[in-house]
Amino acid sequence: MEASHKPVVFVVSDSAGDTGEAVVRAAAVQFEPRQVEIRRVPFIGDISDIDRVVRSVIERSGVIVFTLVIPELRDYLIEQAERYRIPHIDLLGPVIKTLETALEQESRHQPGMIHKLDEDYFKKVEAVEFAVKYDDGRDFTGILQADIVLVGVSRTSKTPLSMYLAHKKFKVANVPLVPEIAPPEHLFNVSKHKIVGLRIDPVKLNMIRTERLKTLGLPDSATYANAQRIHTELQYADSIMKRIGCTVIDVSNKAVEETASVIIDMYRSK
Beta strand pairing status for 148-152 and 195-199? Predict the structure, then answer.
């Protein structure tokens, strides 16, 4: 694939696909700032479902990562992937076969056993859907319904944090702070204790944005990565956070998991 092309990984599963997506995301982090598009294709039930997936993968020159435990479906997908020379990775097959040999017992070949459809599971699903719906200020009404609201300038990890916290069952909305756009009044009408401001070192932010422009095929001289522009944005964001009176976390040298842990501890203490 060309360096400027955003690779697409289709995560195919006869269950929810959480396991496959988690593995792909963990691997994709190693290639930042390059971005990988992940398309989850859950609850594959028959061969016709696989045929539809294969057609989509061919159209996008994609990669297939799958967690199919039903032998017939797994074998058919491998057959089709090899037929059309599609890069593919079987995440569970080799592990299951090895365990069958070690335990001298055949597996159940039953999908979805890792997820019990209980209240806890549905809370996680609801939180993830919430994070997607109210990501990047798409709908400011989410501020009123959220458990946690993240604010900050572009490229301060608002979206990755929202998704990570959602998997911990927190409903998270995030709002970008841009000097030319007035912040939504909802930010000043809810408890400041559920709002978290994300601050970042200007030099670090410049590096991140410059790399982002490169992946988009744009010159690093664009205003987005201009040092003065970044300074202006950060000053503006600081003024809004001060006005709100919210807790502010410096994410300059923190991993998403580390920042999320701090936020969760804060949330539970309040």
Answer: parallel
The rounded distance, in Å, linking the Cα atoms of 261 and 254 is: 11
What is the rounded distance in angstroms from the CA atom of residue 167 to the CA atom of residue 219?
A: 36
Structure tokens at 10: 């289709």
CA angle, 60 as apex, 57 and 62 as ends, to 5°? 55
From first to last of its 270 residues, the chain has per-residue pLDDT tens of: 444 467 899 999 988 888 899 899 989 888 888 889 999 999 999 999 999 999 999 999 999 999 999 899 999 999 999 999 999 999 988 888 898 899 888 887 777 666 555 667 788 889 999 999 999 998 999 999 999 999 999 999 999 999 999 999 999 999 999 999 999 999 999 999 999 999 999 999 999 999 989 888 888 778 999 999 999 999 999 999 999 999 999 999 999 999 999 999 999 887
- Tally Cβ neighbours within 10 Å of residue 173: 30
CB 49 within 8 A of CB 103: no
**Distance between CA atoms of 93 and 102, rounded to whole angstroms?**
14
